[in-house]
Each structure stands twice: as C-alpha cells, then as structure tokens.
Amino acid sequence: MTKSICALAHKPGSTREAFQAYYEEHHVPLAIGHFPFSGYARNHLTGAADFRWDTISEFWADDIDAAAALMDGPIGKIMAEDEERFMNRPLIASAGVEEVILSRGNRAGSDGSRTAILVQGPAGGDDLRSRLMGWASGFARDLPGVSVDFTSSWTELAFPAKAVVWLPGWHEQCSVPSGLSAEILLVRHVETPRSRLLG
Question: For residue 180, how many other CB atoms are within 10 A of its CB?
C-alpha cells in the first residue's frame, strides 16, 4: 500500500469551520465514490489560527500515483468543480509519502484527538531521517499508533514539512531535538470506514 498527504485551506471569505464541515459533509462522499482509496483520513486543525492550512488529509491506495493521475481526467474535473466551492485551490500542497509505522494501534485518541508534528531541516536528508527516527522511536516506546511520514512534494507549493510525526492524543509540549525545527498541530482525526472505500 502506498500513501500521499495533502494540506488544504478554505477559500477567501470563508472560515476554517465552514471548510471542515463542507469537506466532511459533501467532498468526502464525492471522493470516495470516484477514487480507489484503501484508506482515507482527514486531520482537521483545532487551533493554530496562524497556520496557513485548515486540514491535512491522508490517502492510501495500492497505487497512489495511479489514483492521483485520475485528477487529470473526467474525475478530476468533477473534483475540481467541487473544490472551487469551498477550497483555496492555489494553496493545495500535496506530497507522496514514505510512511514508517513505529508502533501499531489506533492513530487517534478515543475522542479523535491527534497530534501532527511538522518537521523541517536540517538540509541533509540522511541526517534528518536518522535524527528524526531516533526521536520518534522514543514516543513509540510509550504510545501506540505512532508513525512518521517522509514527504516528497508533488505540487509547486511544497507540502509544509519534510516529515510529519503522528501521535495519538494531544501532545502540546514536545521537546524537539536541536537542529530540527517543528510546528506542533493539534487536530481532530476523522477516518472513513474501510467498508465505504473502493480500494
């Protein structure tokens, strides 16, 4: 199974709350009827008002590149028309992902709470990976459902992190290793049941 990730924002003149509601009530049913996803989750920001985006979506498929390529055809036209209703399309920032699962278990708390730690730097990719994996493994010793996404941007506007550390529950106070910069986001995780997906 392969994965992609996407940061999305509300259109000018709207609000984060209206964006997230429309996404769940209208856009999600449209998407799952057209794409062969084997997993689909939305992580809706609950704070961080100054963060540029409102939701970070996760997509899994047997071939995520093939699923993404559907946006170049008739399905893409349908989706784009709906996106125009609620989304700031120039701010779409998507990426392919190498997902590393460090501990098995629920991705979010029982109330849907989840933490996304968006990590940047240093410049060397190998150094980032080794330092980040060592740090994230410490969370995995104490928590289920810990994973790391290493991103490769697909869009002209880059995804806002080189890696994302995902933790179940809300963890506002996380000390970040020196040399790495990170933004800690508290989100509400909503995952579509596998039985409703085409993949």
Answer: 18
Range in 50-54, 87-91, 103-107, 130-134 the model is least confident about:
130-134
Question: How do residues 36-57 score in pLDDT, each as one tens digit?
Answer: 999 999 999 998 889 999 999 9
CA distance 122 to 188: 29
Q: Distance (Å, rounded) from C-alpha 124 to C-alpha 130? A: 10
How many whole angstroms separate alpha carbon 163 and alpha carbon 168?
17
pLDDT (average), residues 164-182:
92
CA dist., res. 190 & res. 29, Å (int): 13
> Which DSSP category does 85 fall into?
H
C-alpha 9/C-alpha 38 separation (Å) is 24
Max intra-chain CA distance, the chain: 47
User: Does residue 11 sit in helix, strand or coil?
Assistant: coil
Domains and CATH numbers, the chain: 2-196 (3.30.70.100)
CA 138/CA 122 separation, integer angstroms: 20
Model pTM? 0.95
Rounded to whole angstroms, the Cα distance separating 146 from 100 reads 9
What is the C-alpha separation between 69 and 75, in angstroms, rounded?
10
Instruction: Report d(CA 83, CA 161) in Å as an integer.
Output: 23
CB 19 within 8 A of CB 10: yes
3-state DSSP assignment of residue 18: helix
